[in-house]
Amino acid sequence: MQDIYSRKLDLGLPLNQSAFLWGPRQCGKTTYLRTKFQESIYIDLLDFDQRDRLSVRPSALGEMLESQPSTKVALPIVIDEVQNATNLLDEVHRLIETKRYSFVLCGSSARKLKRPGVNLLGGRAWRFHMYPLTIAEIGGFDLLTGLNCGMLPTVYGRKHYRRSLDAYVNTYLETEIYNEAYVRNAQSFSRFFKAMRFFHGEILNYSSISRDCGVSNHTVRTYVEILEDTLIGYLVHPFNRPSKRKTISSKPKFYLFDVGLANFICDRPLGPRSTTEFGKSFEHLILTEIWAARSYLEKDFDISFWRTSSGLEVDFVLGDGQIAVEVKSQVRSRDLRGMNAFVEEFKPETAVIVSAENDRRRIGSIEIMPYAEFISLLNEGSLI
């Protein structure tokens, strides 16, 4: 049975305010909505009968709601997996305008909603995003468990987590990609998906991926866009302030939304903290925490990376360079080179190396901070 976690997302809506809630499959959206809106009318578009009826005749939604008690329709009406019936959004829009109903529209893919003619409610719905579990949402969080299992509520801490992740991958490929005909050639997308082990967390070299997968550069870019639209991955772009040092090209890095899923696809079960694989996964975990905190705190800041042609690097630059974050499981003197170079040139307000070590210390202008303390400051909103 799935554990019930206290989520950081605060989907508090004024009267008559509608919202979209996006998030990857199995990140806990349905559990959250059923808990928060227990008395609301709930429409699940994974249910074939409901999906078929409302897709064929969207006006049936209005007729159904007209038959409900006024106390029911005064609450937000929850429609889950809304991307399965995008033509229903015209009727939702009409009901918002004419009946003053409010809706929470939940989905795991924005791909279909980007098509021409899809009604996005003309700005009448706020947008929220749910991520996998964060460290603060897990009581007694264990770092190695989190890195290996990942942070999906249905997978974290499970004995047979690899079976669950394997099922997740197959469900994603079948349900989100092949059944929805997002790609013309399932075999080429499968080769691309498997190739993620070579480019996850790295700067995207479209030409190299193209050669490995036997598809065009344009097709690779389309596949990356599909991963973004279906919320399975995100891009982190280079820091774009002018630099006196020669920086790398403008190509972004790509990260999957969950560290456990990435380790499963990359086939890298983790052990001691000293390994390169552990360090890459730890960096990925901290990035997912930054993503979630930015969204849940409703902050608006860029997340980028900085790397020079000579190999100097800072993992994450927040905002317009106000915060520089390097992530290291263990900090050695050579790990300060990139951060020192960034501090010298851009003068960030805070320069921090997030560590899996236990003690906080300071070297010059650089704070070396245990990850739990960094996460606490991040979630308080006092870091940025």
Q: In a few lines, what is going on in this structure?
A:
This protein has 15 helices and 13 strands. With 384 residues, the protein is of the alpha/beta class. The protein has helices spanning 29-36, 48-56, 59-66, 70-73, 88-99, 143-149, 161-178, 186-194, 196-199, 206-213, 217-229, 259-265, 276-296, 337-346, 371-380; strands spanning 18-22, 42-44, 77-80, 103-107, 125-129, 233-238, 253-256, 303-307, 313-318, 323-328, 350-355, 361-363, 366-370.
**Number of extended strands:** 13
Q: Give the biggest beta sheet.
A: 8 strands, mixed
Report mean pLDDT, rounded to a whole number.
92
- The sequence of SSEs as H and E is EHEHHHEHEEHHHHHHEEHHEEEHEEEH
How would you describe what is shown here?
With 384 residues, this protein is of the alpha/beta class. It has 15 helices and 13 strands. It has helices at residues 29-36, 48-56, 59-66, 70-73, 88-99, 143-149, 161-178, 186-194, 196-199, 206-213, 217-229, 259-265, 276-296, 337-346, 371-380, and strands at 18-22, 42-44, 77-80, 103-107, 125-129, 233-238, 253-256, 303-307, 313-318, 323-328, 350-355, 361-363, 366-370. It has an 8-stranded mixed sheet, sandwiched between helices. The protein has a 5-stranded parallel sheet with strand order 2-3-4-1-5. Helix 6 (143-149) crosses helix 12 (259-265). It is globular.
